[in-house]
Amino acid sequence: MGDFGYIGANPVQKVGDNSGVLSLTDIKNLKDDSAITLTNQFIPVTYYVSAGGGGGAGGGMVHGVGYHTGGMGGAGGLITATDTTSFKLGTNYAITIGGGGAGSAAASAGYGNGASRGTSGSNTTCAYEGGTYTAVGGGGGGGFSNWYDTHSGGNGGSGGGGGPSHNLTGSGGTAESGQGNAGGNGVPSSSHSHGGGGGGATAVGAVGNTSTGTYSITPNNKDGRLNTGSYPDWNGYFLDEHTVLGTNGMYVNTGGVMISGAGFDNTGQGGGGGNQSATAGGAGGKGYVIFIYSNALTMTVGGSLASTTTTVGNNKRTIVTNGTDNVSWAVT
Question: In whole angstroms, how far apart are CA 195 and each of 28, 57, 129, 191, 296?
Fold first, then answer.
């Protein structure tokens, strides 16, 4: 076995004429020997590309009959992988961070219809050597509807939850293949009903229910929990429990998780559905792009992008949270 990943006789290394997949140790050695031009070399990178979450839908209140909570927004689509053929040293890659969708209006008192659904989140894009990764914005939640209508959740990276109705089932929205999961269905009821949960990165949204109680949480079900749908008693997050971290300490994308609450920015989280007092749905959270790469590298982030870089063990982690600009890498 020769040096620099070659089998057999060692090739002559030339300045400006070394390409292929080399280890970072090889690259550093070649750099120190002035035997390499540090461009056109692939580097191993783990990436998370997330779109913005969909907006939640407005709720409704029927006089003398019941209260109805709108469907939850779906999480923004999530693309993630670890590979060695997407990014090269010395090359600019364009990124645009998608925004969250707006929540829709509440239904008027009596037997009125709410807006059909919350607005879908915006796409996040990230260029790479093979083209552009496009994470699709989360679908908006379906709004409350009257006796004869129903509002489905919007399609998206993950689908929005279906809206509640007096006598019809609002279907959850569908998800972009490989990026998320479908939203849960709303439920029909002549008294109290809730829209479906928004889909998320790891699970479909929960089906709505007809409970009139409060929404409790079990502490063991919220820490490090990947998405399971919407309301806190369906294993979502609640109030200040919004770090939205997975078991590896990274952000994960969840459907809308608290009534009328906005999705937390830069998590791809869907907005909450409007509550039982006929309020509007919450907005979805903005998307993000995360890169994990060797601490032997330095990443340059364009000034129109907001970002934070931390060192975790032998790696650096850069979280890009807003804007449109380029990123690139160089050997430290």
Answer: 56, 9, 41, 13, 49
**What is the rounded distance in angstroms from the CA atom of residue 163 to the CA atom of residue 178?**
25
Domain encompassing residue 296: 40-332
DSSP 300-318: EE-TTEEEEEEEETTEEEE
Is 254 domain-assigned? yes
Quick: pLDDT tens for 60-97: 877 666 778 888 899 899 999 999 999 999 999 999 99
Average pLDDT of the residues in 229-257: 38
Is 110 contained in some domain? yes
Task: Say how far apart CA 81 and CA 47 lie, in whole Å.
Answer: 6
- Residue 9 included in any domain: no
pLDDT of residue 3: 47
Q: CA–CA separation, 114 vs 59, rounded Å?
A: 7
The answer to whether residue 233 scores a pLDDT higher than 70 is no
DSSP 36-104: --SSSBEEEEEEEEEPPPPPPPP-EEETTTEEEEPPPPPPPPEEEEEEEEEEETT--EEEEPPPPPPPP
